[in-house]
């Protein structure tokens, strides 16, 4: 029997507990395997899936990639980015490139790299409620084997308390997942996030997955990658990220574990939570063992050979399409200036931006459904300009526009205004992350 066939047979078996460890570092592979497990596994089973990805940005299903991602920085990411804290493990420049991908669950945007351990727990739960985030308590116990400052906060994130030790009489029970023996948010010190999570429920199955920022070599760059220059100009109906200061788990830690060590700690915590009998089927994460199957639990290491399963392959292919990334985006507006729909004060526009120009686009599912672009302050002239721009842009799919500057320069005919039209297109290229444009203005 093929590996794919054996995997299918195993996940649909009545074995209660499953632990899978991925050897692939491709985010699209791992998210597709995770989704397949969520959809196809036995309805009564409980599954722990662990994986580590190469550098990538993962946005939530209901989010706006133009709002969440610094596209110009992503395009320049191959040179400065570190894939590992150990230079000898760094990947080629091509593999170093930061991939942007939309997952199939909600929640906010996260940055992954080889210093980050990802966990996913799939389990039975009735629909109509919220995902039980009890597994955050499981993960915090694993993290505490490295750093006793870790706790679960009210958002079900895991944070590190930065302050000094509490008086002995004020310290909580060591196994209390929501409090530590340290002061938090004291003065200039604030608790920093090391793990965020998201979840969903479908057909009686729940998925809770999250990150564990163990030792990212890109820690100082994460906020820059997740800060879009378009943010002041976009107003979205999608789900915005809740931004928090982040840190590595090894910060202020007494030990310096590897990602494999943390994975083993998470497995141990999972086994302890569910009181699983692991006799003769333990899964040492450093080993190359493929399958170990017992009466109560099955464990396996898996990789991209599972792309031989048609549903995993089709999910993998879909996740990497621009249609999935951009055209799942909820409706939003893009406005160069204050307007009734978005009265926020805008930052200064580039000096080359025409002073009298005004841009307002409404975009739904990656398609421009209306545009209002004018260059003149004269109402009659502005109305004619609006019609001219709108005839070119309305119903256009953004992913099919290579460069707004080129499209508008070729198709918008406004004699004497060629430079202004060109500049408007260049600004749209900048805001909407086009590769052609603003650097050469």
Could you explain how this protein is built, in words?
- The chain contains 13 helices and 17 strands.
- The chain has 441 residues and is an alpha+beta fold.
- A hairpin with a 2-residue loop joins strand 16 and strand 17 (367-374).
- Helix 2 packs across helix 9 and helix 12 (404-411) runs antiparallel to helix 13 (418-431).
Summary, kept brief:
The chain has 13 helices and 17 strands.
Can you tag this structure with a few keywords?
alpha+beta; 17 strands; 7-stranded mixed sheet; 441 residues; globular
Beta-strand fraction estimate: 15-25%
Q: List how many beta strands DSSP finds.
A: 17
Strands in their spatial order, largest beta sheet: 10-11-6-2-1-14-13
Radius of gyration, rounded? 25 Å
Amino-to-carboxy terminus distance = 59 Å
Order of helices and strands: HEHEEHHHEEEHEEEEEHEHEEHHEEEHHH
* Secondary structure category: alpha+beta
**SS element count, helices:** 13
Q: How would you sum up the global shape?
A: globular
Largest sheet report: 7 strands, mixed
Helix content: 25-40%
Low-confidence stretches: 84-95, 437-441
Mean of residue pLDDT? 89
């Amino acid at each position: 029997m093929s590996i794919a066939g054996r995997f299918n047979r195993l996940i649909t078996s009545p074995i209660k507990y499953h632990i899978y460890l991925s050897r692939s570092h491709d985010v699209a592979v791992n998210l597709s395997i995770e989704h397949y497990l969520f959809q196809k596994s036995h309805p009564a089973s409980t599954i722990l899936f662990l994986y580590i990805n190469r550098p990538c940005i993962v946005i939530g299903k209901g989010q706006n990639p133009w709002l969440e991602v610094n596209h110009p920085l992503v395009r320049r990411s191959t040179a400065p980015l570190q894939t590992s804290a150990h230079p000898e493990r760094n990947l080629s420049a091509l593999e170093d490139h930061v991939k942007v991908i939309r997952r199939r669950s909600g929640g906010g945007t996260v940055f992954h790299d080889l210093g980050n351990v990802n966990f996913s727990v799939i389990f039975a739960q009735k629909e109509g409620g919220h995902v039980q985030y009890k597994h955050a308590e499981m993960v915090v116990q694993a993290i505490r084997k490295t750093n006793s400052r870790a706790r679960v906060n009210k958002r079900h994130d895991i944070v590190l308390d930065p302050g000094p030790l509490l008086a002995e009489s004020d310290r909580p029970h060591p196994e209390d997942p929501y409090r530590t023996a340290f002061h938090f948010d004291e003065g200039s010190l604030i608790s920093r996030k090391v793990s965020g999570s998201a979840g969903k429920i479908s057909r009686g199955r729940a998925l809770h997955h999250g990150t564990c920022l163990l030792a990212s070599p890109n820690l100082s760059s994460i906020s820059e990658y997740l800060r879009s220059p378009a943010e002041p100009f976009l107003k979205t109906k999608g789900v915005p990220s809740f931004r928090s200061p982040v840190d590595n788990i090894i910060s202020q830690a007494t030990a310096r574990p590897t990602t494999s060590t943390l994975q083993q700690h998470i497995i141990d915590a999972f086994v302890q939570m569910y009181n699983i009998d692991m006799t003769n089927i333990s899964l040492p994460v450093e080993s190359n063992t493929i399958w170990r199957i017992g009466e109560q639990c099955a464990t396996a290491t898996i990789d991209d050979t599972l792309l031989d399963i048609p549903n995993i392959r089709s999910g993998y292919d879909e996740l990497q399409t621009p249609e999935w990334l951009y055209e799942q985006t909820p409706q939003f507006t893009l406005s160069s200036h204050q307007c009734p729909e978005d009265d926020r004060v805008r930052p200064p526009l580039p000096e080359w931006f025409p002073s009298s120009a005004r841009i307002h686009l409404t975009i739904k599912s990656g398609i421009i459904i209306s545009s209002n672009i004018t260059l003149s302050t004269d109402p009659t002239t502005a109305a004619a300009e609006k019609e001219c721009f709108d005839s070119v842009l309305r119903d256009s799919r953004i992913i099919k526009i290579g460069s707004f500057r080129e499209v508008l320069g070729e198709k918008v005919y406004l004699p004497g205004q060629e430079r202004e039209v060109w500049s408007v297109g260049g600004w749209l290229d900048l805001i909407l992350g086009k590769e052609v444009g603003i650097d050469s203005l």
